[in-house]
Design a protein that fits this description.
It is built from 1 helix and 6 strands. Strands 1-5 form a two-stranded parallel ribbon.
């Protein structure tokens, strides 16, 4: 998954944090390899000057955490990319399942 400047937007909330529900954004490109696939979704994120945080949510459970790549354009710089699996409540899992987002990239 690559975050890049395109037509879809996610705006920062107060405090400079943006939460991006990845399945809500259309797939830009897919490249299929014999042992994996590369899926690119493009999201435009606008942050105010200063430190900010972008959280990618609802990623596929089969995602290889070492494969996550993030690109950026503009005057800012990306200082850290980290991957963290968080447990979800049964209610959140049921909502994601009914919305069809539990296994989407």
């Amino acid at each position: 998954i690559r975050v890049c400047g395109e037509t879809n937007r996610a705006m920062a909330s107060p405090g400079g944090k943006v939460e991006v529900d990845i399945p809500a954004f259309p797939i830009h490109t897919v490249v299929v390899y014999p042992d994996r696939a590369e899926v690119t979704r493009c999201v435009e994120v606008r942050l105010e000057a200063g430190e900010g945080e972008v959280v990618l949510k609802s990623l596929s459970r089969s995602l290889d955490k070492d494969s996550v790549r993030v690109d950026g354009i503009g005057p800012g710089s990306i200082t850290e990319v980290s991957f963290q699996e968080l447990a979800v409540s049964e209610e959140e899992a049921a909502q994601a399942s009914s919305a069809g987002t539990s296994s989407n990239l």
